[in-house]
Design goal:
Elements lengths: L4 E7 L6 E6 L2 E5 L5 H10 L7 E5 L5 H4 L2 H8 L3 E3 L1 H5 L8 E3 L6 E3 L2 E7 L8 E7 L2 E6 L7 H7 L4 E5 L4 H5 L5 H8 L7 H11 L6 E5 L8 H14 L5 E4 L6 E6 L1
Parallel strand pairs: 3-4, 4-5, 5-6, 10-11, 11-12, 12-13
Antiparallel strand pairs: 1-2, 1-14, 2-3, 7-8, 8-9, 9-10
Helix pairs in contact: 8-9
The chain binds zinc ion (2 copies).
The site of one zinc ion has 6 residues, from α2.
């Protein structure tokens, strides 16, 4: 059977992160950082019925990724998947929890999720690739450094979604206190536009159609700067892919494969 996969960024940035991965009439939310109501509203605006959601899978416990989980899972009676570290620090009352580990792939409905470890100031954060049939989507947000493992896992994806959090000059000359600047720039913080460019050019391959940038900082980045830096890097590496930038708090997509 010919399967399709569609990834839709419902929201991205410190105000809330959520990506809906779907195929035909079913899907999974990767993070639920918007309120339940806003998640429903944004899904409907893309023509998706929230009842299509079979589960929520979490990358880590930060509120901008988990704000709507409790309400959404309760209302739609769906389970939440996450690493033990993530689940133990997310308020989840009366919700069915499924523990995942970066050692194993996990099937959620028709989707195969392959989690892999990333460094971020959270308990046990992961990024994922999601596959259905021969189609593969890679999603990595909220990570402070790029490792060979990350590049290897993300390679050969049809669609690559990565964080491009800050422009280093804007962050360094911006109003954030020094400790916060240090944390963000550390290998457990967030990816700069330069880092995102590096990851994008390493992870993109012949079969990659698009690279989608996520989690842009409102204070320390602009869509133009992210596009220029990552786009320049992709060009210098001779990676001819479409580059899509998601504005802070905005949605993007749907990106349909198949
Ligand atoms: Zn975040
Ligand atoms: Zn985070």
């Amino acid at each position: 059977m010919h399967e399709t996969i569609t990834a839709t960024v419902l929201s991205s940035g410190s105000c809330g992160n959520s990506i809906f991965v779907s195929s035909e009439d079913a899907g999974v939310l990767i993070d639920a950082g918007l309120s339940c109501k806003e998640t429903e509203r944004r899904m409907s605006s893309f023509g998706f019925d929230p009842a299509m959601v079979k589960a929520i899978i979490l990358t880590h416990e930060h509120t901008d990724h988990t704000r709507g989980v409790q309400r959404f899972c309760t209302k739609y009676e769906v389970p939440v998947y996450g690493t033990d570290g993530t689940l133990s620090l997310t308020p989840l009352d009366g919700i069915r929890m499924v523990s995942i580990s970066s050692k194993d792939s996990v099937h959620v409905d028709r989707f195969m999720f392959k989690p892999f470890p990333i460094k971020h100031f959270a308990a046990e954060p992961v990024a994922f690739t999601v596959s259905i049939g021969s189609k593969k989507v890679a999603i990595a947000s909220d990570l402070g450094s790029v490792t060979t493992r990350i590049v290897d896992e993300m390679k050969d994806s049809d669609l690559v979604l990565i964080e491009s959090n800050y422009d280093d000059d804007m962050l360094m000359h911006g109003a954030y206190p020094d400790f916060l600047k240090r944390t963000i720039r550390s290998d457990h913080g967030h990816l700069s536009n330069e880092d995102a460019g590096l990851l994008a050019s390493e992870a993109a391959s012949e079969r990659t159609r698009s690279v989608v940038l996520l989690h842009l900082s409102k204070e320390n980045n602009t869509p133009d700067k992210a596009r220029e830096t990552v786009g320049g890097r992709l060009m210098r590496s001779h990676r001819h892919v479409r580059l899509e930038v998601t504005e802070h708090g905005g949605s993007n997509g749907p990106f349909r494969l198949g």
